[in-house]
Design brief:
Helix content: under 10%
Structural class: mainly beta
CATH superfamily: Glycosyl hydrolase domain, family 43
Shape: globular
CATH architecture: 5 Propeller
Oligomer: single chain
Bound molecules: (2R,3S,4R,5S)-2-(hydroxymethyl)piperidine-3,4,5-triol
Distance between the termini: 56 Å
Order of helices and strands: HEEEEEEEEEEEEEEEEEEEEE
């Protein structure tokens, strides 16, 4: 009897040790970035956070992105017959958390799809893209903006949602045509003075708008600028370095890659100077087969920024990958080099 008890005890002990070792392994499985490779979360599942952005809050990074459904099809809607409108069910917005930017824990869906009401912006038959979140110190709310659209991309609106905590369930407020114009690809930027801006492709994607939000970040203040008219810039990603603003964007070719460009300005609502392609080397003309989504300053590391791109897989969108690359500067000029593997 004693022997049986001892054997059972040893078995349970071994099981516990091996489970703990597995968790420790998965929580610390990465010590570097491997752009374009499959990236697993701490549960061992591929990260599903596309077109995303990252918020740093009280010592933790939160990565928000499109939670894509697992079947991709070419949209049969006759309105989109002229272009390759591949789509998948809009599964809401996912959130992952990390202390080191390499290893990410799935926190769940922070904006749930509405599977009941087909009229809702959040119904899986619609489009939910490029969610970004910032924190408002005055209202103590986390504010998410995202591109919401009909399945044929004609609704072209900006949606907004709020939450009391970074990884809680966001409450969807609704959508709008900001400043009376359509809005598709977008990003959010909160400046050091706590003013926040929505940057979005507008006027049929021809012109990039930069719009100052109200103090609660829930509306547009009425102050905005029209930038790069007729240049069809998408996928904006913005950051500030040495008191200059840098804006990376893509051309407008659906899910297919094209050449990135960047622009610089002294203030967000000021005059932007369009410059050239920041990417260098092999496949730089196709942005390494990816498209910008966010520019992330690394906390506590001076002058360290990560350029985040999505490597879309248009016929299997859930299998799209992530290309995170280090940003460098040649004097003031922005340079992005490919790296098979890197760490900051
Ligand atoms: C390009 C955009 O950047 C993506 O977010 C997505 O909207 C695709 N177009 C759809 O074709």
């Amino acid at each position: 009897m004693k022997k049986v008890f001892l054997a059972a005890f040893s078995f349970i002990l071994l099981l516990l040790i091996s489970c703990t070792a597995k968790n420790v392994n998965q929580e610390n499985q990465y010590k570097s970035f491997k752009p374009g490779e499959i990236w697993l979360d701490t549960d061992g599942n591929p990260i599903n956070a596309h077109g995303g952005g990252v918020l740093f809050h009280e010592g933790t990074y939160y990565w928000y992105g499109e939670y894509k459904g697992d079947s991709t099809y070419r949209n049969p809607n006759p309105n989109v017959a002229g272009w390759e409108c591949y789509r998948t069910e809009a599964g809401g917005v996912s959130c992952y958390s990390s202390k080191d930017l390499y290893n990410w824990k799935f926190e769940g869906k922070v904006l749930e799809p509405d599977t009941v009401n087909i009229g809702s912006d959040l119904h899986p038959s619609k489009v939910l893209e490029r969610p970004k979140v910032i924190y408002n110190e005055k209202t103590k709310k986390f504010v998410m903006w995202l591109h919401v659209d009909s399945d044929d991309y004609w609704k072209a609106s900006a949606g907004v949602a709020t939450c009391d905590s970074p990884a809680g369930k966001f409450n969807y407020i609704g959508s709008m045509h900001p400043n009376g114009q359509i809005s598709r690809d977008m990003t959010l930027y909160k400046d050091d003075d706590k003013r926040a801006y929505l940057l979005y492709s507008s006027e049929g994607n021809a012109t990039l708008y930069i719009s100052l939000l109200t103090d609660d970040y829930l509306q547009h203040s009425g102050r905005y600028t029209r930038n790069f008219p007729e240049k069809y810039r998408e996928a904006p990603a913005v950051f500030k370095h040495n008191n200059k603003f840098y804006l990376i964007s893509s051309g407008c070719t659906g899910w297919d890659p094209n050449k990135a460009e960047y622009a610089m300005a002294d203030s967000l609502l000021g005059q932007w100077t369009a410059l050239n392609n920041p990417c260098r080397g092999v496949d730089a003309e196709k942005t390494y087969y990816s498209q910008s989504t966010f520019a992330l300053p690394v906390n506590g590391k001076k002058d360290t920024y990560i350029a985040m791109f999505d490597k879309w897989n248009k016929t299997d969108l859930i299998a799209s990958r992530y290309v995170w690359l280090p940003v460098s500067f040649n004097s003031d000029s922005l340079v992005i080099n490919w790296a098979d593997e890197w760490s900051y």
